[in-house]
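Title: Prediction job returns without error message
Component: structure pipeline
Severity: low
Priority: P3
Assignee: unassigned

Description:
Job completed but the reporter wants confirmation the result is attached to the right record. Sequence as submitted:
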Amino acid sequence: MISNPVFWAVLFAGAIAQLVKISIFIVKHHQEFHLADLFVTGGMPSSHSALVVALVVSLFMTEGISNLFILSAVLAAITLRDAMGVRRTAGEEGRIIHQMIRKLKLKVPEYHYALGHKPEEVLAGSVIGALAGFIVILI
């Protein structure tokens, strides 16, 4: 696995996207870095998008149009659609429920809800993933 360029492309894309996301979050909210920030979901850019697009690009560059490439493209399409659709809707509903609990001062434990992504967040993650895939395979 250590010598597999597809593995490194996916890892590189995920790391870059998450570092960009954390940097934007810290600057925007004027907060310090916490280890838990490495696993934050939602926001700009989409790490999920970066991961799956890097997978697709790196597989295409190493194998061409193979069964594995087609499988990864289908996985990417589902992931990208889900990030902007179901996860986004569920996240917005979670945010509203959270606001209602606070406003009504209900005595229920706060829960974590994960936001999905806006189209521009998915696009930014996809660009990072495509670039990571190209860079790692070309090196």
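Comment from assignee: result matches the submitted record. Residues 46 and 122 are 5 Å apart (CA to CA).
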